[in-house]
C-alpha cells in the first residue's frame, strides 16, 4: 500500500489519532505487550518429578519392601527417589522463562503524536493507527509502516538474522517479499542505529512479528529420547516382574504351600526384578556430565538433553555470530592489483598480502585506500572487555580496523581534521568528506556503491600514477565489483582528489573529477575454529545445516568456505511455496537456507525430525528461539545470545564457540555409552535374580535368596560399582562412530543379547552353588548365604567387565577408572558386612562361610568374566 492508503485503512493521518480513539482501540486490541504465561510453581515442578514411570516403579519397590517388613531398605529406596527428584528439580527450575524475556524486549516508552502533539507514553499503551517518532538508539516499540524517513538504519539481526544494519525507506514494495526485505517497515524489539523516522503503528502485542514468535514458542517441547526409552524399559520390566511373580505365586500355591509363603516368594521375585539403582545412576551420569560440560563452556539446562546431544544427527546453525564472528571484516582490496587482508573480526591484527608477498602500509595504492577509508568515516574502534569493539556502523568499522592493522589509524586521524561532510543516504548512495590534511592540504574522500562512485570519477590509479578513466576501465572495475559480490563481499568503491582552499565547496563541485582509488570487500568472516569443528562433525556422521537470514550469495559463500552443503541454497520465499511434504523430500539434499524467518526455521527443524533425525538447533537471536524450542535440543550462544534465546534453549554455549558444541556432543556420546553400560550391568543382575528364584521354585527348591538379601544387593552392593561405570572415561574412537539410530530401543537388540548372556552365566553360577551347598549342608541359611555372597561377587565381576562393551577387559588399563575400583571395594565390604557383622547376620539371616565355600565362589565367578568376553565378541558381530 501507499502511505496514504495505510493511513486511510487505519483511520489515522499524519497528526496521529485522538486520545479518545486511542482509548477505544486499546480496549479493542489490548495492551501492546506479549502475553504472559502461567508458570508452574516450584512445588509443582518438584512433584512432577515423581510422575516418571521408573520412579513409580521404585515407589512400588518401596511398598513391597514395607509389606515384606524390610522398612530400612524401603527407606533407602525412597531416599533414592527423593534424590533423583531433587537433582532433576534443580536443573529444570528455571526452564520456562522465554515468554518473560520476550516481554522485556518491548521498549518501555514511546514518542507518539496524539491530538496533533508529540508526547511520551508507556509503550504498552500504543495502538494501531498511532504515529510514533523513532531516532538513533531507540528500541522500536511496535510494528509500523514508515511514513517519513531520514537516513534510517535499523539493526534487525536478532529478529531476521541479517548481519548488517538495514537501510529503511518509505516507498511501496512488492507484496510477496521476505520479512528481512520489508524495508518500509520497522519491527518491535529491533534497534534504530542511525537516522530517524515517523511511522504509523500497524500491529501491537501478539500481532507483531515478535508476537508471532511468542506464539510459536508455546508449542509443547518433545520428550527427550532417553526419557522415553527409560519409560518404555520400566514398563517392560514391570510387566515382566508382575507376570513372573504371578506365575511363581500360582505355582507355589498349587503345591499346597500356605498363601503367606507363596506371597513372600512372589514379593522376593518382584524385588529381584526391579533395578532400583537405575534411575539414580542415569541421573548421576547426566549430572556428572553437566559438570564436565560446564568446565568446557557448555551449560546444560535440562539433564536428559545431555544424552540427546550425544545422539544428534544434524546440527542446524545460525550463521551470524555462530559460524561467523558477527563482526564485519575487510577481506579484500582491489586497486590495480588484488590485495588480501588477513585477520578476522575487530581484532586489529593481520597483514596485507599481494601475490603471496606481504605489503607495507606505505605502498601508495594501499595507503591511499586506508586514508580514504578513515576520512570518509564516522566510526571508531575501542577496547572493551579484554577485546575490541566498533562504535558506529559495522561497515565503516571494518575500514577503521584495517587502518589500525596497518598501524596508521592514529597517524591519519591526528594529521587531519574534518572540514565538510556530505552524509550517506539511500538516494545518494555515497558519503563524501573534505579534510584538511597535514602536508597535503584539502583532500576530498568518497566511499559508496561502485557504480555511483565511478560516475563521479574521471581518473583512475595505475602503478605509474593516475590516468584518464576510460569506458573499458569502468567495465573492468564493475566486473571486479560483481566478482567480489558473487563471493558474498559487501563492496564499497573509494575515490579522492586534492583541492585548494579557493575551490568552491558546493556538493556538485566537490563530488566531480575524482580519482578512483579502488574497491574494498567486507564480510562477516567464519570463526577460525569452525572449519575443524565441522570436519570432526562430519567424521562423527553429523550433518551441519546453515540457516540464516542473510542474502543468498552470502550464505552460499560462507557455506562453501566452511564445507557445508553442495552449493545449493533455498531461500525463504521458496520455502513459502513448498508444502510440508515437498520440504521433507528435499530436506536431506540441502544444507544451506537463506533469507528465512522464524516460521521457516521451525519448518526446517520439523522436516528434519520427520525424516528421523535428532536435531540440535543453535542460535543467538530472537528469531531463533521458536526453532530452538522445536528442536530436540536447543543450543543458545552465551555471549551474543538474547535472553529469549537462552531461556528457550536446553544448552547455552558460554563462549559462543561452535567447537564447544562438538565437544559437548562427544561428552554426550560418552554419557550415553556409560548409561548403556550401567543399564546392561543392572539389568543383567536383575534378570539373574529373577531367573535364579524362578528356576529354584520351579525345580522345587526353597527360596535361594530372601527379599532383604536381594534388596541389599540391588540398593547397596550394585550401586557403588554402577557409580564408577557412570564416570568411565570416553574411548578414543567415540567421535569416529556414526550416530546411533534414534529409533534404537533401550537396551538395543545386540545389547539385550549381551545382557541376557551375562545374566545366564550369573544364574548358572548362583543356582549351581546354591544347589550344591544345599545338598552337602542341611542348613538352609548357609546355602542362602553362599548364593547371596556368590551373587554379590558375580555382580562385582560383571561391573568390572562392563567398563567396555566392545573392548576386552584384559586389554584395558586396570587403573583407568579409580572410581569404579573404589566402588567395587565398597561393594565387597558391604557384602562382607552382612556375612560377618553379628547384628547384620541376624537381620539378613546369614552365616559365616568356610574357606571351601570362598574358593567355590571366587573360582565360579571367573565364568562371568569369560562369558563377558565371549558376549563382547558376539556383540561386535551383531553391529
From TrEMBL:
Q: Where in the cell is it found?
A: Cell membrane
Q: Kindly list the GO molecular function terms attached to this UniProt entry.
A: ATP binding; ATP hydrolysis activity; ATPase-coupled monoatomic cation transmembrane transporter activity; metal ion binding; metal ion transmembrane transporter activity; P-type ion transporter activity
The record's Gene Ontology biological-process terms are: inorganic cation transmembrane transport
Q: Which InterPro entries match?
A: ATPase_P-typ_cation-transptr_C, ATPase_P-typ_cation-transptr_N, ATPase_P-typ_cyto_dom_N, ATPase_P-typ_P_site, ATPase_P-typ_TM_dom_sf, ATPase_P-typ_transduc_dom_A_sf, ATPase_P-type_domA, Cation_transp_ATPase_P-type
Give the membrane topology: Multi-pass membrane protein
Q: Provide the primary localization.
A: membrane
Q: Does the keyword ATP-binding apply?
A: yes
Alphabetically sorted, this entry's keywords are: ATP-binding, Cell membrane, Membrane, Metal-binding, Nucleotide-binding, Translocase, Transmembrane, Transmembrane helix
Indicate the secretion signal residues.
none
Q: Does the keyword Membrane apply?
A: yes
* Transmembrane residue ranges: 53-69, 75-93, 238-257, 263-288, 679-703, 709-730, 751-774, 780-800, 820-841, 853-871
Q: Which domain of life is it from?
A: Archaea
Which GO cellular component terms are attached? plasma membrane
Q: Which PROSITE patterns match?
A: ATPASE_E1_E2
Q: Where do the Cation-transporting P-type ATPase N-terminal domain residues begin and end? A: 1-70
Q: Which NCBIfam families match?
A: ATPase_P-type
Full protein name: Cation-transporting P-type ATPase
